[in-house]
Amino acid sequence: MHRLWLIFAQAVTVSVAALFVVQTLKPEWLSARLPESSRSPAVVAIQQRRVATYADAAQAALPAVVHIFTSQEVRRHPFINDPVFRHFFGDRLGPDSPRQSGLGSGVVVSADGLVLTNNHVVESADEIEIAFHDGRKTKAKVVGADPESDLAVLKVANETALRPITFAQAGSLRVGDVVLAIGNPFGVGQTVTSGIVSALDRTHLGINTFENFIQTDAAINPGNSGGALVDSNGHLVGINTAIYSQSGGSMGIGFAIPVSLARSVMEQIIKTGTVTRGWIGVEVQDMTPELAESFRVKPGQGALIAGVMRGSPADKAGIKPGDVLLKVGNQAVKDAQSMLDLIAALTPGMSAQFGMSREGKSLDLAVSIGKRPKPAK
């Protein structure tokens, strides 16, 4: 009996010692299946600390985000150097500086030196300088740009050890997901801010011609444009583009171009130097409830053809002002923006069926898609 008692006491001692070691070194092993109320404060603090940090995501993305410094020659009055002209108007001409500088951010998307950024960051720039995460600086040139989506691709030369960012899977982002905005706000240096996805598919903002923005409350400030919006894994989900602000600073409403659109535009620019979109040559407007009743279509459907360009694909196909466009191929048209997106996605030269409503009657027309003209500068 005495021997059994000694064995029992030793077993209990060993078990308590093992429990102490595990509790000290690996407390999560014990608390994995326990409710939070029964866990020790130390365990809860460790787990909360692990959930609250996004250091791994930031470290994965930071090397791929660059600073972009631009400069351009300021166009001056042709008589600026005329002594008589300067005598009468010199004080009204402002500073006599020949160049203007700007700043923004960009994202390394390939190991051979391709950088994705916003078009407005590099638009009209004569010189572009890239500063990398490790302090290296180099010149860059524009491969191509797409003003209508506000995206541009740059190329840096003779650079090694570049770490391109990892693209997130298209469609993986959800409202409420944690995101990090990385860039160079106000030129203070590389900065990471956190927030959540506030909304998806934001349109009708008047920022770009083609809009499908991610809305986030992660702080996006001047200088963040062109930088990376990444998820909790450090994968690229968007390109930071704009803020809603009345003061010039972040007010918790920022917008980023989603990775699906950014990647599509980027691949076209890399391949051809430009972006090709479909076009039929019409002016459209959204259907209000009053217009829907007047044109005998269901509310929330279609886009009203307000004008047709003479000689355009729409004109040749027989589309007329006052028609309501309901379908492009098999895709329903919800409003003017969706119609623009659906037509832009079509390949110039192909023929597509357009479902119309004319004076309350259904009509199908075959339209030969044209190439969308470049926007006027």
Explained architecture:
With 377 residues, the chain is an alpha+beta fold. The chain folds into three domains: 59-87 and 99-156, Thrombin, subunit H (Beta Barrel), CATH 2.40.10; 178-272, Trypsin-like serine proteases (Thrombin, subunit H), CATH 2.40.10.10; 278-371, Pdz3 Domain (Roll). The chain is built from ten helices and 20 strands. The protein has helices at 2-25, 27-31, 41-52, 55-61, 83-89, 119-122, 259-272, 289-294, 313-317, 336-344, and strands at residues 65-73, 99-108, 114-117, 127-131, 137-146, 151-156, 178-183, 191-202, 213-216, 228-230, 236-243, 254-258, 278-279, 282-286, 303-308, 324-328, 331-332, 351-358, 361-368, 370-371. The strands form four sheets. A six-stranded antiparallel beta barrel has the order 1-2-3-6-5-4. The longest helix is centred in the first third of the chain and has 24 residues, at 2-25. The chain is globular and about 105 Å long.
Q: Total number of helical segments? A: 10
- Report the β-strand fraction as a percent range: 25-35%
Major sheet attributes: 6 strands, antiparallel, barrel
Number of strands: 20
- The value of Rg in angstroms is 29 Å
Return residue spans where pLDDT drops below 50 for at least 5 consecutive residues: none
Question: Globular, elongated, flat, extended or rod-shaped: what is the shape?
Answer: globular
